[in-house]
Amino acid sequence: xxxxxxxxxxxxxxxxxxxxxxxxxxxxxxxxxxxxxxxxxxxxxxxxxxxxxxxxxxxxxxxxxxxxxxxxxxxxxxxxxxxxxxxxxxxxxxxxxxxxxxxxxxxxxxxxxxxxx
Length: 117
Fold this sequence. Notes:
By secondary structure, the chain is an all-beta fold. Helix content is 0%, strand content 56%. It has strands spanning 2-7, 10-13, 18-26, 32-39, 46-51, 57-59, 67-72, 77-82, 91-99, 105-107, 111-116. The mean pLDDT is 96.
């Protein structure tokens, strides 16, 4: 099992940048697929970006070219660099983990990102 804690959210103007961090505590971080999700008021939670155990990445079309997910296994952390932020990026952002060979997901409590126009 793993405990996830997000940080780095905040208020930023449109066009600005933020870097979200997700710190994991627990064993075998390097054997977890990691992802960032977000949920805006009145909307379903949606996938933003994922990074696999092998380092491959996938992004939602809405953030492709603007966001970059990365991981540092030595620090048990995953990051989401968000550039060229838009008001529609405003949401609660969650970090998630899934261990290799498991269908059980672990979630952080979320960090709020608010983009003003």
